[in-house]
Write a structure and sequence with these properties.
The structure is a homodimer of 262-residue chains.
Chain A (H helix, E strand, L loop, with lengths): L7 H12 L4 H8 L3 E6 L4 E3 L7 E7 L2 E6 L5 E7 L18 E4 L3 E7 H10 L1 H27 L2 H18 L7 E3 L4 H8 L3 H13 L3 E4 L2 E4 L2 H8 L30
Antiparallel strand pairs in A: 1-7, 2-6, 3-7, 4-5, 4-6, 8-10, 9-10
Chain A binds a DNA duplex (30 and 30 nucleotides) through helix 7.
Chain lengths: 262, 262
DNA sequence: CGTACGTTTGATCTTTCTCAATAATGGTGG
DNA sequence: CCACCATTATTGAGAAAGATCAAACGTACG
């Protein structure tokens, strides 16, 4: 399933329906949304702190990240977005962005103008509910990141990031057999975990040495999911995956494991 | 203005109207919400991780906090709530709470049942918008906390927490002249900043020694707001206070300073 | 084939943690 | 009102995780 080739609004509908039933007219109204497909280069900014959010972006391919800077210029990545993920509603109802959104890799996005999406949300309770839930799940992930960065040591922290990716990539069908590409430099990994690149490097080597995972460039391969989950102190509850199992045969998914667990 | 003595739904209406106009019938429907006033003891849990959120709580008096625990039992406080703040919508549309909510002090809350609030939100676009904005502002605060804990040193981190409180307390009229009570032990401060209590103690003494603030018990008094803001690397943008200036004479408020700045 | 960027390594330095003991404080029952 | 107990705050000394600095090594790509 290539997200770039399909109508991005179908993707949006699918995501909303995964959470909650959607009437035919609601679906029609979604399909009427005007949108624009754009290719964006790696490193390009989608939104900068202080900007007025005037559009909402859906990632059809490529990765993006959100970050903030301290006064002395150090950077904290506060979120990463993988292809196919729900659109960016973080700013849509605020007048001024409080952080930067930047592409991690080159990618293709669908842009929806703020006004039309805003109207859609406010006029369609089913859509409003879905947007609220998307936002709450993102909030939950932020909370887990505060915990991760505030209370876990470097090894757990990195392992946790990797586990979160594994789960989210898996949910998008992008991590067959526990193998996925994490297109981040070690410096970016450091900025996401509140560490230095040097230390990230040593931690990654440690995880590898202990047989928890393998790396080849940016390709991550989980060798021992259970052990990894253990050092990561990872519990997927905060991802609220069950909120998105509506109308799906959820047997197996509810078992708590990933598809690639041996 | 004593929040305990007034109708909590008026408080809710006021908060929503601060953000966006509200029709008379919307207001009526809000006033029809059934609610229950409860006194809660310090340390009592309002919600536990794993619970199904079945009610929404507004803080009329007293302080509360949200936290998560790692597997080995260390705690990270991810949010603090002060009296009069917007209700807790974090969990209202999710099936399972991903964190704990606990009272910091004894306090009085108004409880609104999930179903009635959910219906209100979904049937009234003006309310939906307000709830969305409340949620987005909380999200923004989480992001700032990730930055705070991930990229600032101990001194900045504590100073930043204190500045955030100063602003938020001030917005609720609870910090006259830059003096406010922060009813947290140093251990709780440590859990909010990802430090140890011992180190928090030393940092507080440092801030005091350098003439930035004074302490008497849990009473904080800002002596030099500008200097504090400086070491805190504090920029109130992320609090999105402007989102709540609707219909208010915002001259002075927009100037970026606090009421108690000398 | 050279340049730029990312990764890896080693050595040293700092911040913060840990452990442990002491001093305040607040609240409680008598 | 006082003595006592539990909590919280404070101090000191030593240990450790992670940061910093600097250099070398790879790799991709024009």
């Amino acid at each position: 399933m290539d997200l770039i080739k399909e109508n991005p609004l179908d993707l949006l509908i699918r995501r909303i329906r995964a959470h909650h039933p959607l009437g035919v007219d609601d679906q029609k109204r979604i399909l009427d949304l005007p949108y624009k497909i754009r290719t964006i280069e790696a490193q390009a900014y989608i939104m900068r702190e202080g900007d007025r959010p005037d559009r909402c972006v859906m990632l059809l391919s490529g990765f993006a990240f959100r970050h903030k800077l301290t006064g002395d210029g150090s950077r904290q990545i506060v979120a990463i977005h993988i292809p196919g993920e729900a659109p960016d509603f973080q700013n849509l109802f605020l007048e001024e962005s409080d952080h930067n959104v930047q592409m991690l890799t080159r990618g293709v996005v669908a842009e929806i103008a703020r006004e039309s999406l805003e109207r859609l949300v406010l006029e369609n309770p089913a859509v409003a509910r879905a947007v609220l839930v998307f936002t709450l799940v993102e909030s939950s992930i932020f909370r887990e990141w505060v915990l991760n960065v505030g209370r876990r040591d470097a090894r757990s922290r990195i392992a946790h990031l990797l586990c979160e990716f594994a789960c989210r990539m898996n949910a998008q069908g992008l991590a067959p057999n526990g193998v996925y590409e994490l297109p981040m430099t070690q410096e970016q990994l450091a900025d996401a975990s509140g560490l230095t690149p040097v230390h990230v490097n040593r931690v990654l080597q440690g995880l590898q040495r202990d047989g928890l995972m393998e790396r080849d460039r940016r390709i991550i391969r989980f060798v021992d999911w259970e052990a990894m989950r253990d050092v990561a102190d990872f519990n997927e509850r905060y991802l609220h995956a069950r909120e998105f199992e509506h109308g799906r045969n959820s047997i197996g998914l509810r078992s708590g494991g990933l598809a690639f667990v041996n």
